[in-house]
Specification:
There is one protein chain. The protein is α/β, with parallel strands linked by helices. Helices cover 38% and strands 27% of the residues. It has three domains: 197 residues, FAD/NAD(P)-binding domain (3-Layer(bba) Sandwich); 84 residues; 62 residues, no CATH class. The chain is built from eleven helices and 18 strands. Strands 1, 2, 8, 9, 10, 11, 17 and 18 form an eight-stranded mixed sheet that branches. It is globular, with a radius of gyration of 21 Å.
Length: 387
């Protein structure tokens, strides 16, 4: 059996790698196991990250491809609403570069990052953590689930499952003409979600990330969105099929157990409104690292001690997540006519001032509260709720 570790992290995504660096900096023996051949592959992410996230967590700037200052929202009937900011709110990143930069930081701090290292078995008991990785037995004091939207271990340890989920389909394609970010809504566009086009500026030319998140037929939604933007963005034919992914929406019941923590997508910590996961993944990793380091120093790794992590992320994110879920539950019931009514309000009755006053890339609660207090918007939402 391999010499005992302090922490075994399952999955080398942004959250797992960020947490590994934080722990290794404190001298804790940390191993990150990634099942794929290379960190950062394959890519299942739109790769849009707020500029605030870079500042808050000192994230690697070399992964930035271009910044975003404008977005166009499009209703089912084609009513556009444009929103621009004087300064960039978000950046388009290259996810492989981003993840590998985080991996390099973790290794520089003293962590061990292994690829082709699938965790085939995992046991957590009062005496320790035991895992089988590529046929090798590994022992650790603490395990961290950072394995994305796969929930076998969560079932194994009775942590629960996300409240709900959507399906996503996306592909980055060469584009002759780049536009602003487009978000399209409607029951035929993407039921329960939306479809998008995001401009990408690479050294070898322009690209567009076309995708959809939906309650059903995400591939069909992607294909229809691609046809909407193909001519305007100059996208050719013969593209490979989109990459598909399950998107969790809602935290699992318990994000901790005896000698066990779950972060990011593995904990269901994803924005219910947009499906964005990178910021919440790194935030939860930061909070988990603090709790884990203290628990390891005191050798108190029981579930009751580690429950401090869940209290920490709930204090930070609980109200935000509940507000986003409240909007999602009502918005999912809106008919195309009701969605069009919202877009008409944006042109005639004060929705845009609310957006300008309250819009935050990572914090949607101020906008949601203001929207529910806006009488015309509230009437539309209430009719959908009653229906």
């Amino acid at each position: 059996m391999r010499a005992s570790l302090d922490v075994l992290i399952v999955g080398a995504g942004p959250g797992g790698l960020f947490m590994a660096a934080r722990l290794a900096e404190r001298g804790l023996r940390t191993l990150v196991c990634e099942e794929h051949d290379r960190v950062g592959d394959p890519v299942h992410c739109t790769g849009v990250l707020s500029t605030d996230s870079f500042r808050t967590f000192d994230l690697p700037p070399e992964a930035t491809l271009n910044h975003l200052t404008a977005v166009r929202f499009v209703s089912p009937a084609g009513i556009p609403v444009d929103y621009t900011t004087p300064l960039p709110l978000a950046a388009v990143i290259d996810r492989p570069t981003f993840d590998r930069a985080l991996a390099a930081r973790a290794v520089a701090a003293g962590a061990d990052v292994r690829t082709n290292a699938r965790v085939a078995a995992l046991e957590c008991s009062a005496s320790g953590v035991y895992a089988i990785v590529g046929g090798e037995a590994i022992q650790a004091r603490l395990a961290v689930l950072a394995c994305g939207a796969t929930y076998a271990f969560q079932r194994r340890f009775e942590l629960g499952l996300p409240r709900t989920h959507l399906h996503t389909a996306q592909r980055e394609l060469p584009a002759a003409r780049l536009g602003v970010v487009e978000l399209h809504f409607g029951q035929d566009v993407a039921p329960g979600g939306f479809a998008w086009a995001v401009p990408v500026e690479r050294p070898d030319g322009g690209y567009v990330r076309v995708g959809a998140m939906a309650s059903r037929d995400s591939v069909g939604c992607y294909e229809r969105m691609l046809e909407r933007v193909r001519i305007r963005w100059g996208v050719g034919h013969g593209a490979p099929p989109p990459r598909q992914k399950i998107l969790p929406l809602g935290a699992i019941e318990r994000t901790y157990g005896d000698r066990l923590l779950a972060i990011g997508d593995a904990a269901g910590l994803v924005k219910p409104t947009t499906g964005g996961g990178i910021h919440y993944s790194i935030l939860s990793a930061s909070l988990a690292a603090e709790v884990a380091a203290d628990a390891l120093a005191r050798d108190r790794l029981d579930a009751e001690t580690l429950s401090r992590y869940q209290r920490a992320w709930r204090a930070e994110l609980g109200a935000e997540l509940e507000a986003q879920h409240a909007l999602r539950e009502v918005a999912a019931k809106l008919s195309d006519e009701a969605i069009d009514s919202f877009f008409q309000l944006a042109h005639t009755d004060g929705i845009m001032p609310i957006i300008r006053a309250t819009a935050r890339f990572n914090e949607h609660r101020p906008f949601i509260r203001a929207l529910f207090k806006h009488p015309p918007a509230r009437r539309i939402l209430f009719r959908a709720f009653v229906a």
